[in-house]
Write a structure and sequence with these properties.
By secondary structure, the protein is of the alpha/beta class. The chain is built from six helices and five strands.
Length: 137
């Protein structure tokens, strides 16, 4: 199961709009998904801590800004769950530094290909290559 964490306030509502676009894609619809909207500061961190205990979670996709991805990385700790990121904030410094760019569906598509090819545990070692991050840092 894939978990999406969305900050609907990021980028003055851009995070929510990015997620709504993704929901309409075949790539998104082909996944078994559970999603959460962060509702307050540090909420994404709390959500991830709960998800880390769920063995059915195969990957976490974050849609939001720099603060949202920061909270998720803090919350995931040493858990070995891949994290993807679709920038939806106003500044998106993290995405720029990690070379994550493009429309949400273009970021998601190659990640779902990885899931279909391996259909087992996803192992990603390149730091934020194509939107994914190595959470062991």
């Amino acid at each position: 199961m894939w978990s999406f964490i969305i900050n609907p306030q990021a980028g003055n509502g851009r995070g929510k709009l990015q997620f709504e676009k993704l929901q309409k894609t075949l790539d998104y619809q082909s996944l078994q998904v559970v999603y959460y909207y962060s509702e307050y500061e540090s909420h994404a961190e709390a959500i991830v801590r709960e998800l880390a205990a769920n063995e059915e979670i195969r990957a976490i996709m974050v849609i939001g800004g720099d603060g949202t991805i920061h909270e998720v990385i803090n919350g995931i700790g040493s858990c070995d769950i891949p994290v993807g990121f679709v920038p939806g904030g106003s500044g998106n410094d993290f995405a720029r530094g990690a070379h994550i760019k493009g429309r949400p569906e273009k970021i998601l598509a190659p990640l779902t290909d990885v899931e279909m090819q391996f259909n087992n545990r996803i192992e990603i070692t390149d730091l934020f290559a194509g939107g994914w991050g190595d959470t062991s840092l």
